Amino acid sequence: MHFALSLHPGVEAELYPWPDARAGRDRHDRSMNKTQVVTVRGLRKAYGNRVVVDGLDLDVPAGEIVGLIGANGAGKTTTVECIQGLRKPDAGILRVLGYDPVTQAEELRPLIGSQLQHSALPDRLRVGEAVDLFGTSRACHGGELLARFGLAERRRSAFGSLSGGERQRLFLVLALLNRPRLVILDELTQGLDPAARRNVWAAVRQLHEEGTTVLLVTHEMDEAEALCGQVIAMRAGRVLDAGAPADLVDRHAGTATIRFSMPDAPALLDQVRRLDGVREVERAGARVTVRGTRPVIAHVGAALVRWGPVPADLTVHVPSLEDALLNLVGGPR
Ligand code: ATP
Question: Most-buried pick from 84, 141, 176, 301 (CB within 10 A)?
Fold first, then answer.
């Protein structure tokens, strides 16, 4: 049997403290410090003979919002399902809040709040009943959470009558209801209107300020950039790169693009070519495209101001996490 511990000496030492089976939760809580809430080493999962998670390592530090990003079918949902003890890995070590999700799912479940990609409730269940049903002795005030997510008026509505966005928000309420230590959100804002999306982001930021650890699966790169301290980019069951969103952008999408029109003036174009950081200058008719490092934006801007009226059609494309991910997943396998 493949046993990943032997492949990763020293891992156990950095893991979240393994709780004594007899120890109460309070003792467990006190032992919590700035350490890893989730540690995964060498995770492997196959469906039939198809390997969809292939030797994956992942860390989620306490109090951080960590984003899992990547192409469709990269294995993100499978990974978070293994972390929650909903799927049994074929190999690897997982420690979540000090527990092994394979053998200690019962102990772990009350500490995790999750909003899963394909969550569903019975159509006739009312919003208020769902809150009562899912609340445990650790539950916070369900009414306050419903109000925070704009569902206070829908308390008596049946689940089946809610819009897609209202359902998403209800799942978020249920995920947060029992004051979880770790919140797992899979495609959190899918189907939400822009205002609801911003409300949900504000709620996630509030969770972060309160010290809750969040693992977020998302296809929305603006969401990952807005919320996550760290992102993990996956393709075909493996981690391609991980780090702060800005670092991934620097590593994989360092090119800024500036476009503007100017009269045919070869001398000026030569000056553009000589500006700091410029890698490429193209001209198509009156339209000029300049590519280079991010500081090029400032240098070209300053030059345009010096040369006269700033071209009315000036546009700037600042590299984003989306560019970085596209370059990463489109890169060599
Ligand atoms: P997406 O971004 O599209 O939600 P993902 O990164 O979350 O994808 P997974 O849902 O983990 O990826 O799926 C990884 C691969 O495993 C996919 O090719 C999927 O079709 C397959 N898969 C997922 N669940 C099962 C299952 N229960 N049985 C068989 N194959 C599965």
Answer: 176
